[in-house]
C-alpha cells in the first residue's frame, strides 16, 4: 500500500511534576484549596473532588491510554483546573504543605499515564479549560489562517499537547526538512519550585533552557509558554525486499520527502486464520507530485509510485490526512482539528528503538514471524525516518541526542479494547517484551536507545545511584543525561519536581 501527499508564535502550556513525600496528613488538603484563594472565581469553578458530580467525567476526559481507566487505577484527591498562574502557585503551596504529589495534565498522551496516575496520594492540575492548555493540532489551523506559507514541525498524532511534545523533542512529518519541534523553540516563560515566574531564556540561563527542550521539562519546573519559530512550506509483491531497501532510502533521500513504513499483522481471509503482514508506505512531500515521481523513480522504483497515488494539497490539510490514519475523522474542514474529543483513545503499551544499520532480510523475516503471532490490529510497527535536517544537529544541541547515524526510529506497540480479557492483555505485553528482546542485535547499542516521549517504565525507575538511573537515563539521552543531572542539582536540589522517570538528583556527580 502506498500513499503520498504532496515569524514567530507564542504558545502556552503547562507540564506535570510531583512533590516528594513529607510526613503530614492528607485530610486537610482540599480545605487548603478554599474559595478565598481563587480571586474572581468560586472554588467549584477550579477545584473538583470525588464528591463533585463532574469529577469522574473530568478525570476520564483525557486519559488517552485506556490501560489507566480501570477501577484499580489510583484516583486523585482532587482535580484543579487553574484559570491563571496564581491558582497554580496556590496549588504548589497546598500540595507541599500536606505532602500531596502533583500531576499536571495537558494532552494526556503520556505512554505510562504519568500525568494522571501516581502510587501515592496526588492531585491533578488539569488545563482543559485554560487558554494555555493548547493542543498541537489545535494550533495548526491558527497558524494556517494567519499565513498559508508557514507551518510548524509538529506531531502526526491528533490532540498531542504542545508542552509534552516539545519537552521530549517532538518528531513529525516535517522533521527531515526542519528538525524536531524542540529544535524550533526560541524562548519560554518558566515557573520554578517557589512559584516565581521567569520571562525569557536569559532569565533562566542557557543550561536550563537547553535541558527543557527535549530533557523532560517536568523535572525542573513548569513551562508557562513556548515561543516557537515557524518554518516555510510549499506544495508540491515483495514487502520484505521493499522494507529492506526502504531502510536506507528513507533516511538518505531528498529532505523534503518524509516516508514512514507502517507494518501490521492481518488475516488473509475472514474464514481461515491464515496470516501475513501488511506494509503501508505513507509520505509527505514538500513539492509538486511530478518532482516527487522523479525522485521515487530514480531512488525507489520498486515501490511503483504513480501520479494517481498522490494527492496535492496544502500542508495544513495534510495534517488531516495523517490524523485520519490514526483514527481521526477524514475530511476537508480544518475545524476537525479543533475538536479534541475526536482523537482516538486506546489501551496500549509502546516501546521504541533506533536503527543505525539496515536490518537484514533474515532479521525482517523474524519480525514478520513474531508479528503474525499477534491478533489482527493488536500490534503495529512504525519506521520513522531520520536523516535530512536531523543529521545537521549535534547530539548535545538539545537533550534529544538521536541525530546523525540513525536511519530510523522503530516504534513497537500493542493495543486492546474493553472486551479484551486480562489474560490476553498480559499475553500482548509479554509478546511486546519478547519482540523487544528479539530486536536487541538489530538496534542501537551501548547504550540501546529509546525516545523519551514514548516513555517506558520497563527500562527502569530506580534512582538509588547514578549508575542505576543511567540504565534508563542514557537510553533516552545518551551522554546528555549527565548534564541533565547537573542542571537538576542546580535548579531543584530538593527534588521537588519528581516522578518515576524524572531527571534524578545526585549532587556528587562531577
TrEMBL record:
<dbReference type="InterPro" id="IPR012951">
    <property type="entry name" value="BBE"/>
</dbReference>
<keyword id="KW-0732">Signal</keyword>
<dbReference type="Pfam" id="PF01565">
    <property type="entry name" value="FAD_binding_4"/>
</dbReference>
<keyword id="KW-0285">Flavoprotein</keyword>
<dbReference type="InterPro" id="IPR006094">
    <property type="entry name" value="Oxid_FAD_bind_N"/>
</dbReference>
<feature type="domain" description="FAD linked oxidase N-terminal">
    <location>
        <begin position="143"/>
        <end position="197"/>
    </location>
</feature>
<dbReference type="InterPro" id="IPR016167">
    <property type="entry name" value="FAD-bd_PCMH_sub1"/>
</dbReference>
<keyword id="KW-0325">Glycoprotein</keyword>
<feature type="domain" description="Berberine/berberine-like">
    <location>
        <begin position="450"/>
        <end position="504"/>
    </location>
</feature>
<keyword id="KW-0274">FAD</keyword>
<dbReference type="InterPro" id="IPR036318">
    <property type="entry name" value="FAD-bd_PCMH-like_sf"/>
</dbReference>
<dbReference type="Pfam" id="PF08031">
    <property type="entry name" value="BBE"/>
</dbReference>
<feature type="signal peptide">
    <location>
        <begin position="1"/>
        <end position="25"/>
    </location>
</feature>
<dbReference type="GO" id="GO:0050660">
    <property type="term" value="F:flavin adenine dinucleotide binding"/>
</dbReference>
<protein>
    <recommendedName>
        <fullName>FAD-binding PCMH-type domain-containing protein</fullName>
    </recommendedName>
</protein>
<dbReference type="GO" id="GO:0016491">
    <property type="term" value="F:oxidoreductase activity"/>
</dbReference>
<dbReference type="InterPro" id="IPR016169">
    <property type="entry name" value="FAD-bd_PCMH_sub2"/>
</dbReference>
Amino acid at each position: 500500500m502506498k500513499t503520498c501527499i504532496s515569524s514567530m508564535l507564542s504558545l502556552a502550556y503547562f507540564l506535570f511534576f510531583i512533590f516528594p513525600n513529607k510526613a503530614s496528613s492528607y485530610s486537610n488538603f482540599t480545605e487548603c484549596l478554599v474559595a478565598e484563594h481563587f480571586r474572581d472565581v468560586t472554588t467549584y469553578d477550579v477545584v473538583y473532588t470525588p464528591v463533585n458530580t463532574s469529577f469522574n467525567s473530568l478525570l476520564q476526559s483525557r486519559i488517552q491510554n485506556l490501560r489507566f481507566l480501570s477501577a484499580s487505577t489510583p484516583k486523585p484527591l482532587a482535580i484543579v483546573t487553574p484559570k491563571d498562574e496564581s491558582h497554580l502557585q496556590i496549588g504548589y503551596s497546598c500540595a507541599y504543605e500536606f505532602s500531596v504529589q502533583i500531576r499536571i495534565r495537558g494532552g494526556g498522551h503520556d505512554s505510562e499515564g504519568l500525568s494522571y496516575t501516581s502510587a501515592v496520594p496526588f492531585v491533578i492540575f488539569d488545563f482543559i479549560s485554560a487558554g494555555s492548555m493548547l493542543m498541537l493540532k489545535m494550533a495548526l489551523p491558527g497558524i494556517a489562517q494567519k499565513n498559508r506559507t508557514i507551518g510548524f514541525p509538529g506531531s502526526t498524532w491528533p490532540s498531542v499537547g504542545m508542552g509534552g511534545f516539545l519537552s521530549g523533542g517532538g518528531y513529525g512529518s516535517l522533521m527531515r526538512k526542519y528538525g524536531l519541534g524542540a529544535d524550533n523553540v526560541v524562548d519560554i516563560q518558566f515557573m520554578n519550585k517557589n512559584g516565581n515566574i521567569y520571562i525569557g531564556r536569559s532569565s533562566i540561563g542557557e543550561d536550563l533552557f537547553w535541558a527543557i527542550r527535549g530533557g523532560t521539562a517536568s523535572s525542573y519546573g513548569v513551562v508557562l509558554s513556548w515561543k516557537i519559530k515557524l518554518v516555510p512550506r510549499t506544495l508540491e509483491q515483495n514487502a520484505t525486499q521493499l522494507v529492506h531497501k526502504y531502510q536506507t532510502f528513507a533516511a538518505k533521500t531528498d529532505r523534503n520527502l518524509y516516508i514512514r513504513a507502517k507494518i501490521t499483522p492481518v488475516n488473509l481471509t475472514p474464514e481461515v486464520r491464515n496470516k501475513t503482514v501488511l506494509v503501508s508506505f505513507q509520505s509527505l512531500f514538500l513539492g509538486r507530485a511530478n518532482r516527487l515521481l522523479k525522485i521515487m523513480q530514480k531512488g525507489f522504483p520498486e515501490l511503483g509510485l504513480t501520479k494517481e497515488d498522490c494527492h496535492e494539497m496544502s500542508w495544513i490539510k495534510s495534517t488531516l490526512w495523517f490524523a485520519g490514519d490514526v483514527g481521526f475523522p477524514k475530511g476537508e474542514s480544518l475545524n476537525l482539528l479543533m475538536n479534541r474529543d475526536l482523537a482516538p483513545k486506546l489501551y496500549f503499551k509502546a516501546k521504541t528503538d533506533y536503527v543505525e544499520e539496515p536490518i537484514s532480510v533474515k532479521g525482517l523475516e523474524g519480525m514478520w514471524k513474531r508479528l503474525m503471532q499477534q491478533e489482527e490490529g493488536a500490534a503495529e510497527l512504525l519506521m520513522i525516518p531520520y536523516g535530512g535536517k536531523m543529521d545537521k544537529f549535534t547530539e548535545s544541541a538539545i537533550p534529544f541526542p538521536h541525530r546523525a547515524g540513525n536511519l530510523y526510529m522503530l516504534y513497537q506497540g500493542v493495543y486492546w479494547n474493553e472486551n479484551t480479557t486480562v489474560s490476553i492483555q498480559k499475553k500482548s505485553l509479554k509478546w511486546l517484551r519478547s519482540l523487544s528482546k528479539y530486536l536487541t542485535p538489530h538496534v542501537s547499542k551501548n547504550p540501546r536507545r529509546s525516545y523519551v516521549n514514548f516513555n517506558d517504565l520497563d527500562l527502569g525507575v530506580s534512582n538509588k545511584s547514578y549508575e542505576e538511573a543511567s540504565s534508563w537515563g542514557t537510553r533516552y539521552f545518551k551522554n546528555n543525561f549527565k548534564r541533565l543531572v547537573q542542571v537538576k542539582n542546580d535548579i531543584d536540589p530538593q527534588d521537588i519536581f519528581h516522578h518515576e522517570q524524572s531527571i534524578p538528583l545526585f549532587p556528587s556527580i562531577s
